[in-house]
């Protein structure tokens, strides 16, 4: 709980909701007749709507990226370290939009919403959504603000995939693309991890084929297990080792299956905490969106060819100990951008935190982000001069 | 801008695609893009330099050249440049091959170890040369493969490379009749443009 709001915080924010009645044809073939998106904004949109920055969230992220909802909040938004007055994504300069993606469980239409056709909660019936669908809805949200072109679009992990998709799908609607700890498509191993996560949810007897809400229950065991697995892959061996080592609860081995090592307790806690804030169906949808994303497939696997449409400047960032989205995966995007002659910079940040590093305020990383966005800011001042 | 960079930029044709190996703070690429409409990328591993390039909007890639350049296509660039760094790599000869695989031409600058002052240091004083220009001790120098003007020319010859242009200049990158006449003895910096 903040006693006072820090000076470099965007302060107290209130989420907004945008309703859309234009039907949305999804990549899976189904159509959503209407939907809503919950979002937050930080900073002021300028007169010609040229200073907007869009934040794309990752697997378990949401619209609450910066600031506090109330003075009772224990923690600020998930990327408060990067967004705020004077921070790398400087709200003194930029108008920042952060939304909860379609299919989410934090206020945007998703499996926990009511299906207008049946009057019942969507649950498992909610259609599959893809990165492409998200970009489409984000573009519609931008239209609401009269934002023709974003100064920059920024995202890490699954968020980075959305940024990449933007650069291909709407090349003239962004000037800068910051793609952090991401990949042009999931590796086999990544899909495999996602499948284990999904299976652990689906095999939970409380899952009821995704219609657990109508059974008034939650597949906490399955979802918690999925999160435990995910969590391990977001950390590095070293960061877990540093944090817990072989620390024990007791001085001697208990020779049972209760918590003995601290890391066990940590994972159980993380898994359980997650089930209180996240919906299992949404988790399943998000993992499928990850699995399906593969823009190069549109051109027979030639990523450079797909990216030849892009017009923006790119910043790619990876982290040395990230093995879920390893530096090599970012470099695949970099190489394709070089091949197609695009303006790209790439930096590989020394970090111990594994994939999670993209959420940490690592000085070199923050400086790179600040420098990249500073370019977009200069462009603004030139325009307004 | 460093004088050798200015000299190099005179050797790069307008509207070309350039790869600058060890681009530092991006001064050369920035100059080339502003004055010659040149596009390209710089490779760099120094964190501070990388962030300066990002700030300036110079496309920079964090990549260790010693770990290879395999990610670059054959003949994907018009010119591959390496200013004052060739002597710092594990295998300068193989690197030169790589530069000419990636680029149609390569421009290389390096400190000429054959310069008379170095010879005095080594030949008379009996010490490895330490100067304002080469400020390192033998044990902490990044310059692990010093060569002379003649050595490099011989390497090009043995590889069957065409030396399209060369310059032999003093510490201030000035060209004199004596540096031209006896480059191996009088030039502090050697500059070569080579192709296959």
What features would you highlight for this structure?
heterodimer, A: 385 residues, alpha/beta, Rossmann fold, Rna Polymerase Sigma Factor, Chain: A, 2 domains, 8-stranded mixed sheet, two-stranded antiparallel sheet, 14 strands, 35% helix, globular, B: 196 residues, 7-stranded mixed sheet, 7 strands, 23% strand, Methionine_synth_MetW (chain B)
List the helices and strands and how they pair.
The complex is a heterodimer of chains A (385) and B (196).
Chain A: E1 16-20, E2 24-25, E3 31-32, E4 35-42, E5 52-56, E6 83-84, E7 89-90, E8 95-99, E9 114-115, E10 120-121, H1 131-144, E11 152-156, H2 158-169, E12 176-180, H3 188-202, H4 220-234, H5 237-244, H6 262-277, H7 280-292, H8 303-307, E13 313-319, H9 327-339, E14 344-349, H10 363-384
Parallel strand pairs in A: 5-8, 5-11, 6-7, 11-12, 12-13, 13-14
Antiparallel strand pairs in A: 1-4, 2-3, 4-8, 9-10
Chain B: H1 3-11, E1 17-21, H2 27-36, E2 39-44, H3 47-56, E3 60-62, E4 77-83, H4 92-102, E5 103-111, H5 116-125, H6 149-158, E6 162-169, H7 177-181, H8 183-186, E7 189-195
Helix pairs in contact in B: 1-2
Enzyme class (chain A): transferase
Keywords (chain A): Acyltransferase, Amino-acid biosynthesis, Cytoplasm, Methionine biosynthesis, Transferase
Pfam families (chain A): Abhydrolase_1 (PF00561)
Task: Kindly summarize this structure in a few lines.
Chain B: It comes from Marinomonas communis. With 385 residues, chain A is α/β, with parallel strands linked by helices.
CATH class descriptor name of chain B: Alpha Beta
* Relative helix content of chain A: 25-40%
Outline the low-pLDDT stretches of chain B: none
Distance between the termini of chain B: 30 Å
Q: What is the terminal separation of chain A in angstroms? A: 42 Å
What would the principal axes of the Cα set say about the shape of chain B? Answer: globular
Structural class of chain A: alpha/beta
Poorly predicted residue ranges of chain A: none
InterPro entries (chain B): Methionine_synth_MetW (IPR010743), SAM-dependent_MTases_sf (IPR029063)
Protein name (chain B): Methionine biosynthesis protein MetW
Organism (chain B): Marinomonas communis
Pfam family, one (chain B): MetW
